Amino acid sequence: MNKEVLDDIGRVISGAADTVSRKTGELVELTRLKNQIYNLEREMRRDYEDLGKMIYEQYLQTGIVDEALRPVCQGITRKAELVKQCEGEIECLKKEH
């Protein structure tokens, strides 16, 4: 092989390596951004949950809540009562056996 052919092969390999390197960097950055989005959304879900708990606790303590939220708070209270009822039934079953 002559020197020109080897130089051409070297340029092709070098160009391919540069492309792979660039694409790898893009993929790493894309993955980093997607992870950041996932973590931020997870934190937001926790914040929403905390906010909801605060509103519900305020409702339990004062009975005061925005009218749009009242049915939701009442539903939570009913479900909490059902949970207690189920727990009582479990205890009864445990005592029988």
The end-to-end distance, rounded to whole angstroms, is 88 Å
Order of helices and strands: HH
Specify the overall morphology. Answer: elongated
Biggest sheet features: none
| Beta-strand content bin | under 5%
Number of helices: 2
Class computed from helices, strands and strand pairing = mainly alpha
Helix content: over 70%
Average pLDDT for all residues: 90
The radius of gyration is 31 Å
Number of strands: 0
Question: Could you list the spans in which at least 5 consecutive residues all have pLDDT below 50?
Answer: none
Domains, number: 2
Report on the structure:
The chain has 97 residues and is mostly helical. It has two domains: 63 residues; 32 residues. Helix content is 90%, strand content 0%. It contains two helices and no strands.
Brief summary of the model shown:
The chain has 97 residues and is mainly α. It has helices spanning 3-62, 70-96. The protein folds into 2 domains: 1-63; 66-97.
Note the topology.
Layout: H1 3-62, H2 70-96
